[in-house]
Structure formats: structure tokens, C-alpha cells
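Reader question, answered in our methods column.
A reader sent in the components of a multi-part assembly and asked whether the whole thing could be modeled at once rather than chain by chain. We filled in our standard form and ran it. Here is what they sent:
COMPLEX SIZE: two components
ENTRIES:
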Amino acid sequence: MSILRSTPNASPQVHRRAFLADLGMGFTGLALGAILHADGHVRAGEMVNAPLDGSPHFAPRAKSVIWIFLSGGYSHLETFDPKPALNTYAGKTFSETPYPDPLKSPLHDKRSRAVLTVVRDKYSKIFPMQVGYRQHGQSGIEISDWWPHLARRVDDIAFVRNMYTTDNDHAAENQMHTGRHRLDETQPCVGSWVHYGLGSLNENLPTFITLGGPTRADTRESLGAYYLGPEHDGVPLGTDPGNPLPFGARPGDILPEEQQNEYALIDRLNRLAAIEYPRDEAVAARIRAYELAYRMQTAAPEALDVSTETAETFSLYGLDNDATKLSGRRLLVARRLVERGVRFVQVYPNGYGVWDSHQKLQANHARLCGEVDQPVAALLADLKRRGLLDQTLVVFCTEFGRTPAVEERSGGTDGRDHHPHGFTIWMAGAGIRGGSVHGETDELGFHAVEPAHYVTDLHATVLHLLGLDPRRLEVPGRKRLEIDRGQVIRQILA
Amino acid sequence: MRPNRLAILPLLVCISIATSSRGAASSADYLERVKPILAERCYACHGGLKQQAGLRLDTVALMQRGGDSGPAVVPGDASQSLLIERVSATDQALRMPPPGEGAALSPDELALVSAWIDAGAIGPPDEQPEQDPEAHWAFQRPTRPIVPAIEQVAWSNNPIDGFVAAEQSARGLTASPAATPDALLRRVYLDLTGLPPTRAELTAFREDQSPVAYERVVDRLLASPHYGERWGRHWMDIWRYCDWYGNAGSGSWWNSGCEIWRWRDWIVRSLNDDRGYDRMVMDMLAADELSPTDDESIVATGYIVRNWYALNYNTWKRDLVEHTGKAFLGLTFNCCHCHDHKYDPISQQEYFRFRAFFEPLELRLDRVPGTPDPGRFVPYGAASGGPESFPVKGGLIRVVDAFPDAPTQLYRGGDERDVAADLPPVAPGAPAFLGGDALPIEPVSLPPDAWYPALKPEVIEEDLRKADNAVVAAESNLTAATDEAGRVLATGELDSARADRESLKRRIAAERVRHLHAPGDLNQLSREASRAERLATLAREQLRLLKARQAVADAETAGNTEGLAKAQAELPAAEAGWESARQSVNEESETYSALGPQYVASSTGRRAALARWIASPQNPLTARVAVNHVWMRHFGRPLVDSVFNFGRNGKPPSHPALFDWLAVELIDSGWSMKHLHRLMVTSQTYCQTATCNADDEANRRIDPDNRYLWHFAPRRVESEVIRDSVLAVGGALDRAIGGADLPVDQELTSRRRGLYFNVRPLGFAGLGTLASFDAPDPAECYRRSESVMPQQALALTNGQLVLTQGRMLARKLSEELANSGSETASSEVAFIVAAYETVLCRSPTGDERQACLEFLQQQADLLARVGAQDLPAVTPEGLPPPAIEPAERAREGLIRALLNHTEFVTIR
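And here is the structure of the entire assembly that came back:
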């Protein structure tokens, strides 16, 4: 949400379309009550494109994205990609099956690039599926029995079962968001590209918001804008409506009206400066930034305040249940944010890294699916009944799948290791062909069958649905490779 | 902003119009639409840089002449033109550009080129081929041009002004008048030290009628230690200073290294000492070879350490090549990591030759006096048997050529796994077109205390002192012992301490003869050292045995059966150890332990050769790149916009003659940075006003972007300056220089300057004031961004930094006014003036004074109306509470508003 920005390779003076036009309407002249709506946010009818926010490259199908990331790597084999052969050959090694040994495929080394020197994803003793599968909906798509709520929504969903990535450790989380392996140079994350390409529909809230997720400094690449600049970073919103933004709350010992008067003085003095220094375009931009800051301070807490939601909505999202209330609250807030015009909401619905099931996969996944199944299904249903699913793209993904073989490191018997070679994600909502399955892994659920989709194909699809062409999102002096841009997964588009 | 997208849209429109109508036909069409496609897609291999297959496509005549396969273009018939055949080939083996060198032409592009050929392939009659790449301006050694003679007297003293005025008058531009003294003072203070002048300094400057008052200020600021901090931070941007990047969970370093701040302090110190820029560059690349016993300089190799990447040494070398090229030479080597450079005459092989300068590198940890020896550096990772993390505490991190014979093997496509095993390893070398392919590389024979740091006199002295202290401590323990058991133990300890000291002395004596050519019989001394060391071992074992026996006796006395069993179990090992030590004492031997880690006794000299080549006055790029960086930070915009790319795809200089003059001047001044600063900030060009004036409209019509410097361009200050200025005007700034980096979470509470906080990649730094004002990303920050966004407003209105300093300053100013004794001094007007002069370094205008007066009245009324009992009193912990008296509290609000004034964050 930048008002003005000059970057390397651009003249600092280029911003001719400054905000001088806005200078007539200032803080003092503005009835504050008018901008601080009773309900504190700008309704859809009042949505504006910020002056520097470009229009899309072509007609968009989606206005907003809710990007749900399940951290730690959920098993495709126990969620959305049934492999009966695993049960048939349980306990045998790959070479004892009639299928080609996936460890000997040239794809193995291509898709598994280690950062740390730990031997990974090389196990060959087949571990049977830890849960049953059933067909659901008109489409008859099979998903595992740990998703009873989501099962009722499969006809809204397009599953992509031939995803792959290349990092066999958890930096794959960053890779899912930036498109680059840890050993390559870092790139901006997908949410930042959306922010950069489209900007906001509601100037009172950040354009790219994250809920839950990375807390540790070294895992924040998933919300970093890097060379796009900090104004395109994901803004982590806390769950406390009292102080959701960094510096977002008025100090406790200052009166609201007292601060309002201060903002008015700042505005008045800066307007005098604008007359004195017409050459400094930043003055006009700064006047505008202060107006927005003042409004944001109110709009962000309002968006997080779910107390105005009905009891029915509370129970739909599972806010009345200990297992589901964390995910439920984050996903409900996500809906409120897209409703208010936030472009990109990145949600880590439950704990950070929790899906990483090297051991006790059955117990772990059963519990975790229970934490997110109902809230995610509720989100789809809620968006749909509010007419928002037509303009909101919901993405459900993780950093990698899990090995078809049992992880035997340290004598393990009941878990699966990281598996970059094949995994499943799904999308629903705006522009998506619901009730469809695209792509597959091999019989043992090991390799995504070519042509498979690298993570940036997911980015390309998201950008495409938003009306953006990744080939036209460039910054001078910053090289984007072909692999960064990806290919749209057209097979799942409506 | 997205310049690219905005630029591309009109182009696409043109193409679709062209293809939907008749297509390109005229020579103007060729120049506007066809030639740019060929330039971008074909010239790299078929132009001035290379002539693959003997073919050039950079003029129509050359296309018609063609190459080894005949003419590329048959005018009037695209279908018969080889050019079209090859760019439209579906066979990947035939298609141009070849896969890997670029994507195929789009259908629109293809149609456009075809239509132009069909229409006769018309080009301009006087079309010139591309210039010889080696003739590119930046690759020629600068020579000193004559300073243009100009009419304006005031502008004729400083050569910079001569060049600038000549460009202005050639374009009909009129320079702006000089800035007011107030504006100029604040400008130059912030520019040279990053701190605003105090009110007293402002008053003194206003009253100083001397014609050289300004020059005196400049000299004083350049002599201030804060100059080094301010400009150190600028150079830290360019040299990618970074304290940490890694895994926070395990506390390990992946990038950079612990205590890298010693390099930062070296930068600050070197600038304050006006160490030549050439020398600084050389030290950063090769101080361990150029001054191998000078630890003060060796910390400069922190530049190389910063690029170290624990998980992959290819990444370390890759970053070194890329950023050494960009930072010092303005060359973009990173392109030729994967393939020959598309614009500059640098081959992929030359890329790897450049990397070979760095091939032998490893980290080395030396002992810092007064701290324990950190020991030898152990590479990270299970594969090398090293630790899973790198939590080294203390030590001087530097580099060493540990692998002198490591080959540099070319790999393909930028993928280190695809090694070109069929090609021989490459030798170190810089690009041939700059004369760097045959640098004299001589191995550097290192003095003993460089490769054997325990031999440094100060280390020996410290160790001996410690050994002496241990003996003294043991002696006093013996005196203090009260019973027999205590005396026995204390005697054992004293024996051991004495034996240790003796062992150290004997080993030092032997090592001095062995390595430092001290006189003496080495065999004899070695035997003595060996025996002394074994006696020390025996004394230690003796003590251990005493303690073990004492433990048994103590446990027996105390009737502690469990303790007794444990003590008895340890007895045999202690006895065996003593027995073994006793026997070994009688052996004849000349072996003894070294005093500390030893490294290779010579260094390859590769980096020294590279450093000398880069820092040579003959190098056409080095001085220019440095001048450009300094210029940009004084004038807001560089002379060459592409600050890290002076190659053929970079931008031309706006003032070529001035640029060359400054580059030569820098070299001739002994690469003195302070000389360069003084020249720039004392120029009339620099001293122009930033406010509008009568000539603006005419000037703007000619040069809307102020490329020819007809006014001073206001710019936002850097994140550190904002934070430091708040502290400075509040009177709270801690002006201590240097030292270990401070944790980022202290940013809002610490009063140290911003450059001392732990620097880490963006997104890792939290969301404090610094980050929201475009803190530098150490991954790459050749030029800072200047964004304006609401989060900044929130940080400065709600953040505790402004809240605290605002209250402190309001209180301070009120007290000063009350104590001044003047009758009008305590009036609100006096407060407003004092506040303006302190925060914004100028007096308020009439309108501003009126606005502030109304505000103070309005706030005081509000606060009085609400009443003290109803005022919220939830002051965050650690912050000063607001004033109780309404008028005084209103003043706090005024100070906060001025700290949020656009001028406060602007240099103008």
C-alpha cells in the first residue's frame, strides 16, 4: 500500500500523477465522521482503485484470493490422492511391485534437491494408506474419510494431483510462495506480486494480509516482497482487534479527539509545505498517507472484530468447538477481509509446521484434519451463500507431499518423510471448474506424472484468474526466469 | 510502481495495429519497431559483441550481406529470407534464438519483421553498425577534461559548477538561487553526519558573518566521528553489510558470521581516517595477503565473510563474483554465470576465471585479545563432520586461502550440478577486454604470526600473564589453606600451575627458535619443551589423583555410601592416568604441542592481484563507480542511473565531462573521500534552493526531471536518519561509536544510532520504524527506495519513540523558556519558534505560527474540558506520562506534529 515510491533505475521524479488533485480535500475540511463509517469500512459499492494500482492486464475472474497453507506438508496419500496399490503391496519394497521402481526414475534426482546433507525420501518399504476413501458429490471425487465436511463441497473444488517441488526440506514452504529453491536467489512471494500487480480494493486495509503462520524471522520469506519493496510485504494481522497492526493502536494515554486534532495539524502544516515545495511530490503523497493511516487505525480492528457475526456463523465455522476454533476464527476473519476488499489473504489455519508427520502419521493427520475440515468447508459455504465465491479464489496447499514408503530413519515405523516428487493441492471459487480432478501421480503415489506442475504453475493460475499475466510483472534489473512465471493450469478453469 | 508494464502496453498496441494493417514498411517503421526486436533478440550473437556464423544483423546492409550461410534477408520476400526461416523454425535445433539463449519470437513479432521484409526491407541510408563493445564509454580510462569557462562569477570557483553551468546554459536553463542559511545548514548536517544541527548550532551559523562560515561547518562535519557513521552506512548498503542470516531456531549462521560488526567498525574508522578508497577496496578483498599481521585491517575481509554461505560454497563464490562486479566495477557478471554475457564482452569462461580468485577461500577464526581462542573453524554440516549449527561466540572472523590447489571447474546453465568435466579447470583472471586476463599472481609468503596466530607478541604476552596469575592465585590459596587436607590440595594446585607456566615458557622458547629465528639450539629447546609439557601433564594428573583420593576420604568421613561408591569408581582411572604420565616423563622426545592453530604458511596471492587490479588508477571503472555513488547520495540522483551496471546495457552519464573530471580528481587526490565530499557540498550546484522560484516554469518545460540540476532535489532521508533525528532533537541520542550489534527488538527503546542494530535480510527484521522507512535489504541495496506509506505515519504517530521523545522535548523546551527570564519567552509563540528551530531547524512562517497557535488553544481547551480525572492514564510501561497541565500537554502534541511534518523526514 504505497502512496509513492521511487525505486532503483527509475527517476525519483517520475511520479507525475501525484496526489495534487486530492489536495483540495483535507483533514480539516473533511468531516471525519464521513470517512469513519459507522461500520468502519468501505462497502463494495464504494471500492476504489488506488491511484497507483494498475488495472489488470485482462478481464479478471477473481477479485480476491484466500490462500490457505497447511504448514509442514500434509500427506497427499491420506487426503486427496487415493492409491490402492499401497494397500495391496503394503510392507513390500518398490522393486517387489509390478511397477517401475520410482527411486530409479531420473525424475527422482531432478525433483529432490537437498540443502542439508540428510538422506531423505529414499525409503522403499511401502506404507499402506492410513485412512479409507469414499466418493462424494455429483462428481464422485474420492477424498479421504478424514474430511467429512469438505466431502460435501467437492463439487466446488478442482483438485490438482500432479504437483511437484524440488526442495526436500521445509524451505519448500518458502519455495511454494516464492517459486525458488533455497539455494537459488530469493524472489518475491506470490501475494506480493498480486499486491504489486493490482493493489487494493480498500485503501483502509493492507492489500496483502497474513493470518497465522511464520513467527520466526527466518521463515518469513513466504510473505516477503524483497525487491518489490516493503510496502508489498504481507502484513501479519494479530488476532487481537485491540492492536492488530504494527503501531496500529493509538497510545493508551492519548484521547481520540486529541489525536485527531494532531492529525489535523499535521495535515494543515503539510499543506503549507506543499505550497512552498511544489517540486517535492512526496509532500502530497505524505498528506494522503496520513489520511489513510488514520482510517486504517479504525478499519483494521473492525475487520477483525467477529462479534457482529451471527451465532449460526459461529457454529458453522466451529468457533464453538475447541478443536476447530483457531482455524475457524482465522478463516472467518479471512472472509471478512475479502469482503472488505483485501486482495490476498494468506492463512495458516492451524499451527506452524504441525502437518510434518515423520511419526504417528495416522493420529497426527486425523487430529489435524479435524481441526481444519469443518472451518474450510464452512468458508466455501459461507462465501457461496454471500455471493462471494464467484469473485474469490480459494487455494488450499502445502509445501510437499509425504513418501509412499514408511520413514525408517531412527527406526520409525508409522510415519512418512518429506516428499517433493508429487503432491495434491486444490482450488475453488472464482474461475475454477468445480468437481474436477486434474493430473495424477504414478500407481504408488510417488512421482507426479509428466506433464506435472511445478509450484509456479499454481502462481500463474492465481495471477491469471486475477487478470494478471506473470510475463508482464517485471521489475527492471531483476531477472525473472521462465520457471518463475509458470504455466496456467488451464484444465481446471471454468 | 511498475515502469515495465506501463512501458509495454503502448508497444503491444503498436504491434497489433501494425500487423492488422499493412505492416511496417518505411525506414521509420524499421527504426521504431523492427530494429528494437532484432536488437533485443539477436544482437548479442549477431552484432557488435559477437558475429556468430559471420553474421551481423545490426544494419540492413549487413543483413543483406549475410554470413556463412548467405544473405539473411531478401528484400521484398520474407519467405525466401533466411532470417525468417530460422526465427520461425519449429525444429529446436535450428530455431533462433536457440533454446536456452532466449524464447522464440512471438507471432506478432514474427509478423512484423516479415511484413517489413516483404515491403522491401527498407532502412535508413546512413545506418551505422553497433559500436565496437570495447569502445563503450565506461571502458575507456577517464582523462581530465578542461573545466568550461562560464560567465556566472559565483559559479566559477568550483569546477563542478563550471561543468553544470555549461550544461545548463547550453539548454537555456537558469540555476536556482542559493538556499537559505537555515535550509543549507540542515541539509549539509544531515548529508554529512546523518544528524540535524542543534538549535545552538543553528543560531551560531546564523550569526556567523564570515564569508567562509559554511566552509568551516563543512570542515567541522567532515572531521566529526559521525561522518564515518553516516557514510559508513551508505557504503554498508553497497557492500551488503549483514550481521546475520540463518536458522533462528538453532541460532546458527548461514550467511555472514558472528562479530561481523568489526568490519562495520572498520568501515566507520577508515572513513573517519580518510583512508583512501583504493586502499579500502584492497583491504576488503585481500587484507590478509596485503597486510597479513595487521588485524585492524584484516577485519576488512568481513566483506568476503559476509558473502559466506554455510550450506553451499558455490553460493558464496557466486555472490562474491556478482557483487564484487557490481559494487566495485559496475559490471554485471551474474549474466555470464549461465552463458556468455549478452551485452558486455565477458564470456562464461571469464566468469569462472573471476570466480577462481575466490576459489581457495575458507573462514578462519582468530583470537581477539582478552578473549578465549575460538579454535579452528569447522565447516558446517553433517557431511563434513561439522556442527549442525554455527553458534561460534567471540573471535575475529576473517578469511584464509585454505585450499590453494582447489580447481575452478566450469558448470553449465548456472547449475552447479552440471559440471563441464570435459573442460580443464580455469585459472584466475579478470575480463580480457579490461586487460585483466594476465594479472601477475604471486603467492604471498606469510610471516609466522600470520599463519600461526598464537605467536603474535600480544597473544604470548597475554598467555604468560595468565600463567603468572594462575601461579599467584595458587600461592595465595596455599597461604590461605587452614588444614592439612587443604594444604595438600593447594600445594598440588600450585605445582600444577607452576608446571603449566614452565611448559608454556619452554614451548614458547622452542617455537620462537623454530619459527621466529630466535637464537638457540632447537633440538635442545625442543627436548626441554617436550619434557616440561610432560611434567605439566604429570602435575595435572597428580592433582587429579589427589582430588580423587580426597573425594574418597570425604565421602568416608561423611558416611555417604552413594558418594563413596562413585568416588571409588573414579579412583582407578586417576591412578592409571598418573602412572602413565609418570612413565612418559622419562621418555626422550622432542615433540610438544603447538601454541595454537596453524594454517597454510602462504596465501595464493590471487585476491591481492585482483584487489590491485580493481584499485588501480588504470582501471576505467573503479573511480567512476565510487564517484557515482557519492554523487547520488549528495544530489539525490546519480550521474549514471544504473549504479551497478556501467556496461553497454546500462545508462549513459548525464554529465560525461563532469563525471570524468571527478573520477580523475578522486584518483589524483589519493582516492580521498573527504576531498570528494568537500568538492560536492561546497559547490553552488549543491547549495541551490529546493523551493520554487520565478524561473521554474521555463526550466520545467526544458528539463522536467531536473536532470541538469537547476534546483536542489528534495528527497526523503533514510530510515536510520529518521530514527536518529528523533533521538537527537529529543536530546536523548547516545553518541557512542561502534561496538557489537544491538538486538533489533531494542530499536524502539535503545538510544544508540540506527546503524548499530543487527542487520538482517528484509522480512527478518521485524516491523519497527526502520523497516517501514525502507531499511536497506542487505541482499542487495545499491540504491535505497523512498516509499511513502501509511504504516510510516502509524509508526511516527503511535510508536513509543516519537511519544517518548516528543514529551521529553516539550518538557525541555518549556523549562528552557521558563528559565530564560525574558517576559515574552514563556508565551506560546516563543514555544512554537523554539519547537520549529529545534525540530525543523528553521523559524515558522506566519501561517504556520497561526496554525500552531490555534492548535495549542484547541488542545488546551479540549483537555481542560475533559478534565484531568477523565483523561486516559494508561501510559505504556517505560514511557514518560503526559503532562498534567492542559497547555503543557498541548505542547507535547505540537512537538509530535512537527516530528510528523513532511520536512522532518526530508532533506531539502
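What stands out: Chain A touches chain B through 91 residues (CB under 8 Å). Residues 361-385 of chain A form the longest helix (25 residues).
Send us your own complexes using the same form.
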